[in-house]
Amino acid sequence: MARTSPAEFIKQVRAETRKVVWPSWAETWTTALMVVVMTTLLGLFFFLIDAFFDRVVAALLLLAK
Questions:
Q1: 3-state secondary structure of 53
Q2: Can you tell me whether residue 9 is helix, strand or coil?
Q3: d(CA 61, CA 27)
Q4: Which of 9, 32, 44, 52 has an alpha carbon within 20 to 30 A of 60's alpha carbon?
């Protein structure tokens, strides 16, 4: 495999970077908002599941006494 000089590498990186389609601000904000909403919903979901199992285990331990 042929070695690439640092200057050639930088030239190739710049050429590839020009091909990237960057998202608009609206797309970035929409995506960020969706991440926050989904993270909040999942956090609430897992909190409720954890609270439910906490009560089930506490009830079972109470029965075992």
A1: helix
A2: helix
A3: 50
A4: 44
Tokens representing 59 are 């009830």
Copy the structure tokens of residue 37.
């909403």
User: Rounded to 5 degrees, what angle do the CA atoms 21, 7, 2 make?
Assistant: 95
Quote the CA–CA distance of 64 and 47 in Å, as a whole number: 26
At 1-43, the pLDDT tens digits run: 778 899 999 999 999 999 999 999 999 999 999 999 999 999 9
CB 46 within 8 A of CB 54: no
- The helix/strand count (H/E) of the chain reads as 2, 0
Amino acid at site 64: A
Amino acid at 49: I
Going 19 to 24 to 25 to 29, the CA torsion angle's sign is: negative
